[in-house]
Design brief:
Length: 139
């Protein structure tokens, strides 16, 4: 099992998401959106991990706010995820230095930073579904 942290980043009154398109081994394509973030590394706090992941994936610094969702997703992908509200602090969106940008050989598929209005989220394939419900106010 792994534990992840994710940041609901408010940037110019829009929410920052990552649009992913991955080709599977069977040739099918998975097209979806995720909240930026990732796995907590050994000896790293949730806050340290979230700041690192946001820097790697988005290239910005954020102030971390309230925890808005704890999601036990062990049934589907053996993970536990924490979602925090985040406020843009500094940096240029799109200047991340993570493997999504630096290791194109091993990191295949589309990785695109997108800004969306909250009311647009209902039309996206945002995973996990539970965070989509929280963001559009169905929770």
């Amino acid at each position: 099992m792994h534990t992840s942290v994710r940041g609901i980043v408010n940037y110019n009154d829009q929410i920052v998401l990552i649009h992913r398109v991955k080709k599977r081994d069977d040739g099918s394509v998975r097209d979806y959106y995720v909240v930026p973030g990732g796995k907590i590394e050994e000896n790293e706090s949730k806050m340290e991990a979230l700041k690192r992941e946001i820097q790697e994936e988005l290239g910005i610094e954020v102030d971390i706010g309230n925890l808005i969702l704890e999601l036990d997703d062990r049934e589907y992908n053996d993970s536990f995820q924490y979602f925090y509200e985040c406020k843009y602090k500094s940096g240029e969106l799109g200047t991340g230095n993570g493997p999504e940008f630096t290791d194109k050989v091993n990191y295949k598929g589309l990785f695109e930073i997108v800004l969306v209005d909250r009311d647009e989220i209902r039309n996206l394939n945002l995973v996990p579904e539970k965070i989509k419900d929280v963001l559009i106010g169905n929770e």
